[in-house]
Each structure stands twice: as structure tokens, then as C-alpha cells.
Amino acid sequence: MENMQEALTKKEKEEAQRKKCEGDKKQREAREKEKKEETSKAKCDFLKKLEEQDVIKKKCAIRKIRDATGKKQEDAIRQKCAMKKMREQEEKERKENEARTAKAILFRSTLYRTNCKQDFQAGNKVSIVGAGPVGMGCAFALLTKRVTNNIAIYDVKNDLSSAQRNDLRHASLFLQNCNIDNSSTIECTKNSRVVVIAARPSSKPNESCQDQLLRSADMIKQIVPELLKQSPKAVFIVVSSPVDVMAWVARKITNLPYERCFSTGCHLDTARFRMFIGKLLRVSTSSVQGMVLGEHGDTSVPIWSSVSVGGTLLKDLLPPIGTDKDPMVWSNVHKSVVNAAYKVIAGKNYTNWAIGLTVSDVVSAIF
Ligand SMILES: NC(=O)C1=CN([C@@H]2O[C@H](COP(=O)(O)OP(=O)(O)OC[C@H]3O[C@@H](n4cnc5c(N)ncnc54)[C@H](O)[C@@H]3O)[C@@H](O)[C@H]2O)C=CC1
Ligand SMILES: CC(=O)C(=O)O
């Protein structure tokens, strides 16, 4: 019995031990499970947090991307707008340019018409008859002194006049684009405002001065009425020698009044007179005033009472000036004037520059 009791107790003990072990095991398992669950929860939480963070990060990234995309789009739109504006500006400028060009073309035609008018001073045409040194001296002075840029040169010698015209034309660049009538006939003088007669019939051997004079007069009688037909309103300036006689012949044959037909008279003699006085006193020619009157050349008359230098009349300082009682013998100055042409002719066979400039001065007084 005792053994049985003992065996029972032992069994019970074992049972209790087993139950305790089981209970411990269960407890341990429960704790482990709990721990596991805690760990798993922590893991989950961690993962969740991680996930959340990831989501946030992703969201940020997406926002960033969106922002970037938006900015890109914005930039693209802005660029498109800028390009549109630029195209509009370009179009505007193109239209403005077109309008400006159209205006310029219109302006150019106006300019061209104006320049044509300016280029060819139609109203100030000067015809020169006789293409010898004197006629060409006149032409050269008229053009270079800018009295006119519209001239005609007429001579019975066609080749000569044509060559003279071309020689001057080649200097058109320096002569205000001068217009020189192209024709070789007398019609080239048509509608002149001034006609300068510088022609001389060719000399014949052993011809007397009187015969020469008569032939010159015949030339004037023949040519001036023809020229008047071409230019009925022109002023005629006679240069051909003997100049005052030839001007008288021209007036007689045409019945033109004095103011429309005259010679250069003593204008050249006056220029020489003032020059010689200036030279003697060592002052500039333009500071000297004074006149030579009468017929051009040998019989001209110096007007001593008119001579002044810088506004002072020489006769106030020297009352007998120019007379036989003049201690300074100023009359020698007039002798120099008379001899001037002979001296030049002795050297080059003709005079032309001084008479050319004299003519241009007279023409400028008409214009
Ligand atoms: N008044 C003055 O202060 C001055 C007058 N003269 C005079 O000017 C005149 C010209 O002198 P230059 O040129 O040296 O003489 P130039 O004899 O060399 O030339 C005269 C030109 O007149 C041309 N001619 C002749 N008959 C003509 C006509 N019916 N129609 C057109 N052309 C004609 C000739 O073919 C020639 O080419 C001369 O009578 C000269 O004495 C010269 C200097 C000063
Ligand atoms: C030739 C002429 O008349 C002169 O030069 O005065």
C-alpha cells in the first residue's frame, strides 16, 4: 500500500512536475509568442514608419518631379510666349521696314526729281559761242565758280567743240554734275538765259586790221540773230574783239536794249587796274577799289578819283594822282593795265583765264 502510495505520490509528483513543466513551457511559449508578437509589431511599426517615410519621400520626390515638370512646362510656355512675341515683333518690324522702304522709294523719286532740277539748272543755262581759249576760259570759270552747271558750247568747228565738251564732262564730278549740251549745231544754245559770244573768224594771211574788223562784224551780224531765235529772252554778252564795237554791231542788228546786249567792256581792265595797284602798295587786290571806264584796251580811262584802298581815297592823300603833276607817276599803273594783254599774248598767243573769270563775274551779277 505504502508502495502504492509512494508510487502514486511519485506519479502525482511527476504529474505535477510535468504539469509545471508544461505550464512553464506554455508560459515560456506565451512569453516567446508575446515577444515575437512584440518584435513583429515593432518590426511592423518600423516598417510602417519606414514605409510612411518612404511614402513621404516618394511624395516629396513626386512633388519635386511635379514641380520640376511644372517648371519645365512653365518654362516651355514662357518660351513659347517669348517666341510668339518675338515673331510678332519681327512681323511688326518687317511691316515697318516695308513701309519705310516704300516711303524711301517715294522719297527717292522726289529726291531724284529735285536733284534733276538741281543738277541741271535749266533756268540758268549759259551758251558759249566759240570754243577757243577764251570761250573755254569762260566755260571753265562759270563751272568752277559755280555760277551755273548748265552750259552749251557752240563752234563752227564741230570736232573742236565736241572735244572741249568731253574734256569738261570728264570733270563732271568736280563741277556739280554739270550738264553740257551734247549737240554740235546752233540748236544746242536753245533756251539760254545768257549767251556769251567769244567767236572769232579765222585770220587770213596779210589781212589788214580793217578787213579783219569787217569780217568780225559780219560774223556777229550773221550769228547773233540766229542765236536770238534759239534764245529769245537771253542776255547777250559780247567778248569778241574789238569788243565794244562788236557789242554795238550786235545791238544794231538785233535792236536789243543795252541791258540785254553789252560787252565785258572795261571789267577786265578794272580787274587788272586793281591788281596792279594792290601789287604796288603790297595790299590784296580785293582791298583796292577803283574803276577803268571807256573802251576796253588801249583807249580805256582810269578813274583815279574812284581809287581807294581800305576805304581811303588815294586822291585825298595825293590830289594830283594820275595827272601830269603826280610826283608818284601813278599813270604808269594804267600803262601796265594796257600792256598786260600784249605781254600775255607775247608769251602764249592769247589771253583767256582773266577774261573767262571776268565773264563769269558778269554772269553772276545777272543770276
Ligand atoms: N573782250 C576781251 O576783254 C577779250 C576779248 N578776246 C577776244 O575773244 C575772241 C576769242 O578769242 P580766242 O578764243 O583766243 O580766239 P580763237 O580764234 O582761238 O577761237 C575762236 C573760235 O571761234 C570759232 N568761230 C568762228 N566763227 C564762228 C561762228 N560763226 N560761230 C561759232 N564759232 C565760230 C572758231 O572756230 C574758233 O574756234 C577774240 O576775238 C579775242 O580777241 C580775248 C580776250 C579778252
Ligand atoms: C586780248 C584782250 O583783249 C585782253 O586780254 O584784254
Automatic annotation (TrEMBL):
Keywords: Coiled coil, NAD, Oxidoreductase. It comes from the Eukaryota. Residues 1-41 are annotated as: Disordered. It is an enzyme of class 1 (oxidoreductase). Residues 267-366 form the Lactate/malate dehydrogenase C-terminal domain. InterPro entries: L-lactate/malate_DH, L-lactate_DH_AS, Lactate/malate_DH_C, Lactate/malate_DH_N, Lactate_DH/Glyco_Ohase_4_C, NAD(P)-bd_dom_sf. Pathway: Fermentation; pyruvate fermentation to lactate; (S)-lactate from pyruvate: step 1/1. It holds the Pfam family Ldh_1_N. It catalyses: (S)-lactate + NAD(+) = pyruvate + NADH + H(+). Residues 8-41 have a biased composition (Basic and acidic residues). Residues 125-262 form the Lactate/malate dehydrogenase N-terminal domain. Gene3D superfamilies: Lactate dehydrogenase/glycoside hydrolase, family 4, C-terminal, NAD(P)-binding Rossmann-like Domain. PANTHER family: L-2-HYDROXYCARBOXYLATE DEHYDROGENASE (NAD(P)(+)), L-LACTATE DEHYDROGENASE. Belongs to the LDH/MDH superfamily. LDH family. This is L-lactate dehydrogenase. It comes from Drosophila arizonae.
